[in-house]
Specification:
single chain; 294 residues; alpha+beta; Nitrilase/N-carbamoyl-D-aminoacid amidohydrolase; 5 helices; globular; disordered N terminus
């Protein structure tokens, strides 16, 4: 079901960043408490972090970790659907999805304010780095680039490593997304933090702010906090507007609800005086369809 509601001039969103609690049930319960807090504060859309109710198990290649996967009709997702309807909010829920117990995706399910499933997005870009062994677990997404109509307008959702690819953000903006969400699990490794930590965080935030400016979109990234294995997740979930202004930002080490108010009338004004889409030259961009350009 798609929500065809009138666009509002302003709207409030929330990002939920938290540390791993130690077991799936307490992670779900604590997250639901934070979702309720966000709804009490007036958020119309609430976005959870990547793999929200499990540890970030991708630090190593371990077949036992496939037990964290769940099908699209899991009890957790049913509970989130019911919560969306109860609170009247749009809820973005990232999970480790199992399909026929043979194929596994890093997936976001988007529930409308009536609890209906608006759709899903499966992570397209899968990293493989020390501490981020995701290619062992996740099949690259096969479901295109969906957008979702909500009471705050059309939104797009991408996941973590997708953040670094401008093509993904551009496609969603071309399909009418006014707001891009990035559920995330990113952090530092001990051997790198002292020398590279500040620069890594700066690059992460800057590239997403660039997507916001280049596409005239709001961008909202929600990241985990806490140390799991050797990974120290840096939190600092944030919301940027289309000028690159930070509208809200979480701390580096605590579980919290990050709230931001969005001015869509101001966004319309930006898109009229910075007409990037008018001046695009898609007939010249054919090389983007190639892996390497010589």
């Amino acid at each position: 079901m798609i929500e065809q509601l009138a666009m509002k001039e302003t709207g409030r969103i929330a990002l939920i960043q938290h540390r791993w609690t130690g077991d799936r049930q307490s992670a779900v319960d604590s997250t639901i408490g934070m979702i309720r807090e966000a709804a009490r504060k007036g958020a119309r859309i609430v976005c959870l972090q990547e793999l929200f109710h499990m540890p970030y198990f991708c630090t190593s290649q371990d077949p036992a970790c496939f037990h964290w996967a769940e099908p699209g009709n899991s009890p957790t997702l049913a509970r989130m659907s019911a919560l969306s309807a109860e609170l009247g909010i749009v809820l973005i829920v990232p999970v480790f999805e199992s399909v026929h117990e043979t194929v596994f995706f890093n997936t976001v399910f988007v529930f409308g304010s009536d609890g209906a499933l608006l759709g899903r997005y499966r992570k397209k870009h899968i990293p493989q780095d020390p501490g981020f062994e995701e290619k062992f677990y996740f099949t690259p997404g096969d479901d295109g680039w969906p957008v979702f109509d909500t009471p705050l307008g059309r939104i797009g959702v991408l996941i973590c490593w997708d953040q670094w690819f401008p093509e993904a953000a551009r496609i969603l903006a071309l399909k009418g997304a006014r707001l891009l969400f990035y559920p995330t699990a990113i952090g530092w490794l001990p051997a790198e933090k002292a020398e590279w930590g500040a620069q890594q965080h700066c690059a992460w935030r800057s590239v997403q702010i660039g997507h916001a400016v280049a596409n005239g979109c709001f961008v909202a990234a929600t990241n985990r906090v806490g140390t799991e294995g050797e990974s120290e997740f840096w939190g600092q979930s944030f919301v940027s507007d289309f000028y690159g202004n930070l509208l809200a930002e979480g701390g580096p080490d605590k579980s919290e609800v990050v709230i931001a108010d969005l001015d869509f009338e101001k966004q319309d004004g930006f898109r009229r005086i910075w007409p990037f889409f008018r001046d695009r030259r898609p007939e010249l961009y054919g090389d983007l369809g190639k892996q390497v350009v010589s």
